[in-house]
Design a protein that fits this description.
single chain, alpha/beta, about 10% strand, about 45% helix, about 400 residues, 17 helices
Length: about 400
Amino acid sequence: MLVKPEEQLKIIMKGAQTIVDQEELLAKLEKSYKSQKPLTIKLGLDPSAPDIHLGHAVVLRKIKQMQDLGHHVVIIIGDFTGRIGDPTGKAKGRVALSDDQVQANAKTYCEQIFKVLDAEKTIVRFNSEWLSKLTFEEVIKLAATTSVARILERDDFQKRYNNQVPIGIHEFFYPLMQAYDSVEIKADIELGGTDQTFNVLMGRTLQKHWELEKQVAIFMPLLEGLDGVEKMSKSLGNYIGVNESAERMFKKVMEVPDHLIIKYFELATDEHPEEIEKIKALMKQGTNPRDVKLKLAEIITNLYCGEEETKRAIAYFKAAFSNKGIPEDIPELLIELGAETVQDIIPQLVEKGLVNSKSEFLRLMKQNGVQLNKEKITADDLDRVLMNGEVLQIGKKRFIRLVK
């Protein structure tokens, strides 16, 4: 049973940056409510980056909210368009993916998106189903729906054209093919990040050409990472992965800068807009941001790891980072990328003079003289992956804070 359009609109608009257009959206919701016929919600995924983090999940979370409202969700894996690769934001064309790469990435992607979406209520389709069957005549007709001038309105194409960087004719077909997906499934709403604006709006253009009702376009903002400045990115190391352990995820959410707390509530959780307004009010009244972040960390961790794992993560965080008996002003040790376990950092500890040798470290560990967050570690902990902010204690007076 679909809920009233006004309530749906309130939930759909939460956190959205742009809706094209809002009047059309309300009209669709009202028509859907009267007929009790769910809308078709489309999300196209390019299977070129299979590791999903909370930044990628912003759009998925919005899709999940509409799924919970009773609408049909269709995920389109761009296995055919993936052979071209979306040139969005690129200074040059992407290298086309092989069929094996596309299939492997798509499989991994699906495993991760169902950490957010309800698998039983989600239809997954591959756009090779229809795009690979188009005749050359049909492709020509598709190309005739728009002009070169219109395609060159895309910033990335425009920049490459002005800088005399080659643009392959086949690259012009990417937005057309993605838009044709909307024609094929008769999408009512399509979601995307702000970097997908041109492609999603092209879907409206093609639907109008095919005399279909135009889809509403909803664009979600980009989510800044843990540095509070750059958009969340694995390459920048400022990300929270959806596949991370509960302890690691909880700790990372606690590192979110205070000025982004509300944005994370809006984009990385399914909390109702009214609940978020209450949180805003509490923060304005002077509630400690750390207390609010504890709630945020609990909600996000529970979404991806479940209730039991989240309870363990909370207990671990409180035990590990309560700073009982740990001096505040202690030196830091930068954990190098690729050297992130206890065993990996022993050479750095020797170099810093915290221990004389690896054998001394192992001897102290056997004598219960090495602690991580005030908990003794053993040989079983040597392969444990270290987290940002943890404190290693060697003997009674040697402390060092581990940072990434």
